[in-house]
Amino acid sequence: MSETVQEKASFLVVANRLPVDRVTSEDGTESWRSSPGGLVTALEPVMQSRGGAWIGWPGAPDERVEPFHHDGYDIIPVPLSSQDVERFYEGFSNATLWPLFHDCIAEPVFHREWWDAFREVNQRFARVAAERAEQGATVWIQDYQLHLVPQMLREMRPDLRIGFFLHIPFPPPELFTRMPWRKELIEGVLGADLIGFQFPGCVSNFLRLARRLPDVEGARGRVHMPDGRMVVVKAFPISIDAVGMRNLANSPQVLAEAQKLRQELGDPSTILFGVDRLDYSKGLRNRVRAIGELFESRDLDPEQVVFLQLATPSRERVKEYRMLRNDIDLLVGRINSQSTSLARSPIAYRYTSVPRETLAAMYQIADLMIVTPLRDGMNLVAKEYVACRSRNDSALVLSEFAGAALELRQAYMVNPYDIDGMKASILQALHESPRVKARKMRAMRKQVFDHDINVWADSFLTELESN
Ligand code: ADP
Ligand code: F6P
After folding, report:
1. In this entry, which stretches build a coiled coil (predicted)?
2. Substitution site in 275, 280, 314, 380 for ligand 2 pocket (most atoms within 8 Å of beta carbon)
3. CB within 6 Å of ligand 2 — which residues?
4. Which of 137, 216, 294, 425 could form a disulfide linkage to 299, CB 3.0–4.6 angstroms apart?
5. Is the ipTM of this complex over 0.95?
6. What is the CATH number of domain 242-450?
7. Which one is the CATH code of 9-238+454-466: 3.60.21.10, 3.40.50.1000, 3.40.50.2000, 3.40.50.300?
8. Cα(353)–Cα(314) distance, rounded to whole angstroms?
9. DSSP string covering 398-429, please?
10. Whole-prediction pTM value?
């Protein structure tokens, strides 16, 4: 494969973020680090095996970066000014669409100037994709930040095959119709030939809305457009590179790191583990409360049990995220301050991102994985944990409101709003017989390995390229 950047590509991924973010430290040194979130985890291996170009933002305002070749594919940066970051990214994407699409668990904020910026930035992404795509190329647009790009790109380049995949849930019409620009958003995404959602409920929510447009008919996963085009709408549950994850988790380096980590945590008999972007959709407040109460009541013995929680910094300038950070700091501080042991705190909480090797080591030492989002498109953390567990002596507590719950049916399911129910499920999972635990873990592992990221990408792209 060529190491130089190609003028045009036959396969392009367009996402708000590049797979790597440029970071400038205080002394001015620049480096690249892996971008946060499930989108990058899922699409990186797809790009590494297919090649092509990834169009996206380098992760900092006013960043001008030349295209470069990385890991077998081209990186085409799209700059965002500070005002774009404020209005398009922090504003319309993450304070309007994100809460609206996550069942309004936080109140969506509607500002006309944010909408104008959203349209303008979507145009910019569409223009770059139009310039970089070969005649007849396949362009795969990702996620809610680029909802308008499919139609914009179709107007510029009707020769392209255009796919769109939404990584987050798509809400019911009863919530979506609050959106002042609802018609534009639905029409914008209908510029694609194929629209993929995480689970079937999102497909039916979307079809109910599409049918409300004039002269549009939609049923059984197909939308017939007034211009004669047919758009396919279907569920494609996303996944992970399961073999890659398992191999990483069982490498000598990771196994050694796992042993060291266990020592650092005071060699407890049981480790509970959670890892999320610090996002209110992840249900951290209730999770920490439930576990705190279990320590307080001594159902969990702080001399024997540690709860390790990692939170990746995310969208730190958006108000809801700042409030969440303070709340978790306070909650964890309060629980730890009530512990009688001076040697060790019941909750080991870190607000940081870690290398993939360290994360794999943490999955290796976790006896119980706790994944409790209030709403989540999929949740790849749950699948990563399952893929890493070659031994069958562990368990997964999983929110019924994560897309992953439709696939990992043998997990201990919880309603994350029900703190007592969550406490009961945690205890049940911890005290389950080894035989039942092993059966559940084997079944979940089979599901993840039979439906990995290659199955996901192949099924989406085969459908896109064949109709
Ligand atoms: P989301 O896309 O909403 O962030 P997912 O669970 O689908 O949620 O994906 C999160 C991805 O980010 C996973 O691949 C997970 O391993 C990774 N991740 C989350 N937190 C951290 C962290 N603190 N350090 C490193 N990777 C993390
Ligand atoms: O999967 C949801 C998602 O919003 C992705 O689109 C995004 O890349 C990831 O989470 C992380 O969010 P952000 O890009 O805002 O840091």
Report:
1. none
2. 314
3. 16-17, 36-39, 143, 167-168, 314-315
4. 294
5. yes
6. 3.40.50.2000
7. 3.40.50.2000
8. 10
9. EETTBGGGGT-TTSEEE-TT-HHHHHHHHHHH
10. 0.97
